[in-house]
Write a structure and sequence with these properties.
Blueprint (H helix, E strand, L loop, with lengths): L3 E4 L3 E6 L11 E6 L1 H11 L4 E4 L1 E3 L2 H12 L2 E2 L4 E3 L6 E4 L2
């Protein structure tokens, strides 16, 4: 089967605990995100060989993204890690 190649953005979506409940202190839970990374995961989950190409920070959030992509079967061997910038985060809250 021909693999798909997803090229572009991978980031960490930080979702607020207050999205469904306004009580208590607000905390944030990380989820892997970015449309190309999500497309690679969706294809891999359907059994289509998937590669993700992109650049992420050489930091703990970059480690998290690599772990998540790999866990879903996405080939990350062409992901470039950099110390020039940090992995992108998107905070989602109300």
């Amino acid at each position: 089967m021909t693999p798909i190649i997803a090229f572009g953005e991978a980031l960490v979506d930080m979702l607020s605990s207050r999205l469904g409940d306004d009580s208590g202190p607000e905390t944030f839970t990380p989820y892997a995100g970015g449309a190309p990374a999500n497309a690679a995961v969706a294809c891999a989950r359907q059994g289509v060989p998937s590669l993700f190409l992109g650049m992420i920070g050489d930091d703990r959030f970059g480690d998290f993204l690599i772990d998540e992509l790999t866990r879903y079967g996405v080939d990350t061997r062409y992901v470039v890690r950099t110390r020039e910038a940090r992995t992108a985060l998107a905070f989602v809250s109300r």
